[in-house]
Automatic annotation (TrEMBL):
Native species: Pseudoduganella plicata
Annotated transmembrane regions: 39-68, 80-99, 119-140, 152-173, 185-206, 218-235, 241-259, 266-288
GO biological processes: CAAX-box protein maturation; proteolysis
Protein name: CAAX amino protease
Source organism phylogeny: Bacteria, Pseudomonadati, Pseudomonadota, Betaproteobacteria, Burkholderiales
Keywords, alphabetical: Hydrolase, Membrane, Metalloprotease, Protease, Transmembrane, Transmembrane helix
Length: 291
């Protein structure tokens, strides 16, 4: 499934995500964000591979332009509708609703007691995450920033214990340790695409936006975390009511990690630990039993 072109595309996409945490690069008298160069390379290779069309590229450029315009403007008449448009486009990209993207299949695997595993290079979702982190995630670039991430370690530990423990106790999932051949691909894709993109939208954009709007209000932080977590839970509607409740609980953990540390990296890490342990240790929410 992985052709040389797709391997290059996947590597460049991973570099584009990681480059969010690189310092800006010198370009003459100016400094250019490293992620813009890496993302440009992703676009070129994706066009060659047939994974994106000019329409998809145009939507990404529109999203970047809206974010840049909103950050430069001080007028609420521009900032409010721009934010609505940014949220709409980013969500549509993450949900694969924007035309012009053809996410390549890179892995398919089946493990006993687990649902089939299918992995794609989700360009649209990854790009939405990159852009939102770049403008609203405030990536850690100093030692002090990374030390702040460590303040959330109790939440990083407690969240997967509570979420997966409750899921096991209620029978939503089943204990099924596994190590399929696609483990490395899944973990890398989940961290760099799923966790980064979802935390970029729900925590960097929505929760921080609500926290800023409710700044100085009594229970403002609690409301911001609560509302964002409920919306995050509803986004997992496909797994049924139990999955909505568990995702909401997990979302509270991710929101607390962001609030406690002030860093989006803590939320991403907490999210990744939950997803990784769920992948490696349990099967569900719909358990597939071997016959």
């Amino acid at each position: 499934m992985l052709t040389p072109t797709l391997i290059v595309l996947a590597a460049l996409l991973a570099l584009a995500v990681v480059s969010l945490w690189f310092p800006p690069l010198p370009a003459g008298a100016r400094r250019v964000p490293a992620w813009t160069i890496a993302l440009g390379a992703v676009g070129v290779v994706a066009l060659i591979a047939g994974a994106v069309t000019p329409v998809g590229i145009a939507v990404v450029l529109l999203l970047i332009a809206l974010c840049a315009a909103r950050e430069r403007s001080t007028s609420p008449w521009l900032r409010v509708p721009a934010m609505a448009a940014i949220a709409f486009i980013a969500l549509a990209l993450a949900l694969h609703k924007i035309p012009g993207f053809y996410n390549p299949l890179i892995a398919r695997d089946v493990a006993d007691g687990a649902a089939p595993i299918t992995q794609y290079i989700n360009l649209d979702k990854a790009i939405a995450g990159i852009v939102l982190i770049a403008f609203y995630g405030l990536p850690a670039r100093t030692r002090a920033d990374w030390r702040a991430v460590g303040r959330a370690w109790p939440i990083v530990v407690a969240t997967p214990v509570l979420v997966l423990g409750l899921a096991l106790l209620t029978g939503v999932v089943e204990w099924a340790p596994k190590l399929p051949s696609s483990t490395g691909t899944f973990l890398a894709s989940n961290l760099l695409i799923t966790c980064v993109a979802e935390e970029a939208f729900f925590r960097a954009l929505v929760q921080r936006g609500l926290q800023n709007s409710l700044s100085g209000k009594r229970y403002g932080v609690a409301v911001a975390i609560g509302v964002t977590s409920i919306v995050f839970g509803i986004a997992h509607l496909g797994g049924g009511v139990p999955m909505i409740l568990l995702a909401t609980l997990a979302g509270i953990g991710y929101g607390l990690a962001l609030w406690r540390s002030g860093r989006i990296e803590a939320a991403i890490l907490t999210h990744f630990v939950v997803n990784a342990l769920r992948f490696l240790l349990v099967a569900g929410p719909v358990v597939v039993r071997a016959t």
